[in-house]
Amino acid sequence: MKTQRIRPRNLLSIVTLALLTGMGTAQAAIFKDAQFESLQDAGNYIELERQAQARLKADAGDAEASAALSLALTFADAGDAKRLEAGAKQAKRCIEQHPTAAVCHLATAQNLGMQMLSMGMFKAMRMLDTLKESWSRTLELAPDSFVARVQLAKLYLTVPGMMGGSVSKAKELEAAVHASQPETARIIRVNIAAEAKQWGAMEAELAALKPGKDAAMREEIRDATMQLAQVFLADGKDLAKAKSLYANLLRDQPDHAAGYYGLGRVHIKMGQADEAIRNFERAKTMADADEYPIEHRLGDAYLAKGDKAQAKAAYERFIANKRSNPANLDDARKSLAKLG
């Protein structure tokens, strides 16, 4: 799951958020090859690995196939340390064979982000420069890369100055494509506004975006909308505004869980447990459902309704799921413990 970006209060939070930012759009706008791109967008890494291996067998010098294999090894099962290591070795091999192929450096950046998430704080901090260099090299080789430009800008915005962060550098990345790639520039401005907590500016820039069918842009819009809606949702600050943002997201991206999940959270806050449950159950049917702590919130909804048995079952499912977001696990365990 992708976390909502909030102001971190300690170095561990800073590093974790920076790493999640660095690997933001891992499933989009990477390959020129349409088949590879389609499999990547769908997150079908098993088939991506199979096709990449077949392509490399036919042509060992195929740079895109080499990078595809690295990404497949990296993301098919991020909890498998051996596959993650194999992905790193494949990315290194890709760069050694194709030092000027942007896709190889991009695969390296993605793998680095996943590696760092499993490391201790201080070891991960030492690798931040390498991650930044990988994104920078990708962008140098492919100046039109939406993924590299946006992820590098987000990394600059998230990491503090003493660790290489810089709002001015993010603004430079935006200015470089302000006229030539207006939508890329706009999504960077969305993130700059978010970092400055200028919620009105962030909302205006988001509303003006024209994503079309681009998967990477749609994902950025999804993440930013969820972040902004969370601001209004927190402490019931402006539930109507949060509901409107989630409803717009559902309208524009009905094939993703985000809109349903967000509306479910709003309905809990509004005391409408049945409507919350309906939205959470629908969110569970979406392909990207694992990106959100749906069972945790479903447990909260059943608890609000007074159905302790269903609440307990939902909390237990969430805790048992190895892919559950650690940030929600403690709350879910506490809620479950109270149920006895």
UniProtKB/TrEMBL annotation:
TPR repeats lie at residues 257-290. The keyword Phosphoprotein does not apply. Keywords: Signal, TPR repeat. PROSITE patterns: TPR. It holds the Pfam family TPR_19. It comes from the Bacteria. Residues 1-28 form the signal peptide. This is Tetratricopeptide (TPR) repeat protein. It comes from Duganella violaceipulchra.
